[in-house]
Amino acid sequence: MSMHTLRVDSHVFSDSVVVEAQGAVDVSTAEDLERRLRSALVASRGRRKLVLDLARVTFFGTIGLQLLIWADQECRERGVTLWVIASERAVLRPIEVAGLTGRFHITSSMPSVNEYAVAEQSQTA
């Protein structure tokens, strides 16, 4: 039995939905993150971005990578951009080892929602 815990919160803004995770993303906790991501995808209707804040994640297992790929596919189908906030090796290393670094919009901090719009515009320019 895993001793890992995960806290997941979400916030809806005018042009984005932010899902924040804190703790370990593993087989025993992934269901909570998946449930919150599903709700966020529903809430993202009419919004431009879904932000997954993993800055306070201490462990990111294979199931986390699977959820990230799934969320990215779902966002693309909805015309929503998935942003991933990750600054710790616990999250960045698995993404890198899996060869997924170029697939996601990854940033190291949580700028304001308006800063995201500027960042998206500069990436498409």
Automatic annotation (TrEMBL):
| Residue ranges constituting the STAS domain according to the UniProt record | 6-125
Pfam family example for this protein? STAS
PANTHER family given in the database record: ANTI-SIGMA FACTOR ANTAGONIST TM_1081-RELATED, ANTI-SIGMA FACTOR ANTAGONIST TM_1081-RELATED-RELATED
Family named by the database record: Belongs to the anti-sigma-factor antagonist family.
Protein name (database record): Anti-sigma factor antagonist
* Organism of this sequence: Haloechinothrix salitolerans
Q: What is the lineage of its organism?
A: Bacteria, Bacillati, Actinomycetota, Actinomycetes, Pseudonocardiales
